[in-house]
Design goal:
With 376 residues, the protein is an alpha/beta fold. It has helices at residues 11-23, 29-41, 48-55, 59-72, 74-78, 92-102, 115-125, 133-142, 160-174, 244-258, 277-281, 286-293, 311-323, 330-346, 357-363, and strands spanning 183-196, 215-228, 233-239, 265-269, 296-300. The protein is elongated, with a radius of gyration of 35 Å. The mean pLDDT is 89.
């Protein structure tokens, strides 16, 4: 039978414990439980069995707290001592080797570095006997490295032509709203039509919705989108194709239906071959094509810089909020897109465009070319 340690609290200790227990929420649970054990064990007011029942703890814990108090005092019995822990697994040179390895191409046959691959490589290159993935993760986090992530960014070598087009677009965005000269961003996106082979099952309490991994390919559809940042308005037109004729029909709709009172519509678009004045002449008689083009002015983003077109952001919102599911036919696609468009327009959703002319010159200052060099 273990030796019985009698607890006799000094009045100051008893007062301290009483205040701490009734302060609420200022100590850790295990610290408060140790205090309660000592408080109830004071002068053997309660037996260990009574303390065990009252505090739902074990007799061994009660015995240990009694012993720590008698042998080392209140501080040692109640509060956790500072643990020295283990030293860092990697020294400075080894951490530098980790960074260099993580920034190098992955091993042959691997798409990217993983924590385990990096741990194995460091063990092979150093005298470390073993290394956990958690250690690698912590060191990479300190160095702000995530070698398994990739970002796609396409920007051509800056020259005077690129800068001129970019600054022209940014200047256009900075202009105040003018109902007679609206700025409309235009682009298109592809949507695969995919049907279900088996009927999906709806969600139930404790069970997510389920769908079969089999599906049917039912063709594709094209989505043209117009976006006016000043009106907080967008419109999506669903078509089967994106030919010259489809583009021309969109421009005619823009002029005659959406902006009949505008004097000149500033259309921002990318350099797709169908995005041209020629597309209107290929679709309509010359008189009609010229009538439409008198009210249209095209502003092209630089090559490989379609990210300067605001409508790209709105297309991403459409994809995530509405199109991220299986839709099998054009009618359903049109219905769902129209519902999304109506709700977003009524909510007055817009885009907070932060890339201004001044920020472009600051952010890309090192990439700006010597504009005195002749163009090729």
């Amino acid at each position: 039978m273990p030796e019985k340690y009698s607890v006799c609290l000094h009045p100051d200790e008893r007062s301290f414990i009483h205040e701490a227990i009734h302060a609420g929420g200022k100590q850790r649970v295990r610290v408060l439980n140790r205090m309660r054990i000592l408080y109830m064990a004071h002068n053997d007011d309660h037996t260990d069995e009574e303390i065990q029942t009252a505090l739902a703890t074990s007799l061994s814990t009660i015995h240990r707290i009694r012993q720590n108090f008698v042998e080392h005092g209140l501080q040692h019995a109640v509060f956790d001592s500072i643990r020295p822990g283990t030293g860092r697994k990697l020294d400075g040179k080894q951490e530098a080797l980790l960074v260099a390895t993580a920034c190098s191409p992955p091993p042959k046959g691997q798409a990217r570095w993983t924590l385990k691959l990096l741990a194995d490589r460091l063990v092979a290159l150093t005298d470390i006997e073993s290394l956990s993935a958690e250690t690698i993760r912590r060191r990479l986090r300190e160095k702000q490295l995530k070698p398994w992530q990739k970002k796609m960014w396409c920007i051509k070598k800056l020259d005077a032509r690129f800068v001129a087009q970019m600054e022209h677009i940014l200047d256009l965005y900075a202009m105040p709203a003018d109902p007679k000269r609206p700025v409309v961003n235009f682009d298109e996106s592809l949507k695969q039509l995919v049907g279900e082979v088996k009927q999906p099952q709806a969600a139930k309490p404790g069970q997510p919705s389920r769908y079969d991994y089999h599906y049917k390919r039912l063709g594709s559809a094209n989505l043209f989108m117009f976006f006016d940042r000043h009106r907080k308005w967008r419109h999506v037109k669903v078509t089967k194709r994106k030919t010259n004729q489809d583009f021309a029909a969109c421009m005619k709709e823009l002029v005659d239906e959406h902006y009949p009172e505008a004097e000149e519509i500033q259309v921002v678009l990318d350099n797709l071959s169908t995005h041209s004045e020629a597309a209107l002449y290929a679709t309509y008689p010359a008189e009609e094509a010229r009538r439409l083009l008198r009210k249209l002015r095209f502003h092209y983003t630089p090559t490989h810089a379609s990210w300067l077109n605001m409508v790209e952001i709105e297309l991403s919102v459409l994809a995530s909020q509405c199109l991220d599911r299986r839709i099998g036919d054009m009618e359903t696609l049109r219905s769902e897109v129209q519902a999304w468009e109506k709700a977003r327009n009524e909510a007055g959703a817009s885009i907070q465009w932060l890339f201004s002319l001044e920020k472009a010159r600051t952010k890309l200052t090192r990439a700006y070319p010597d504009l005195s060099e002749p163009l090729c």
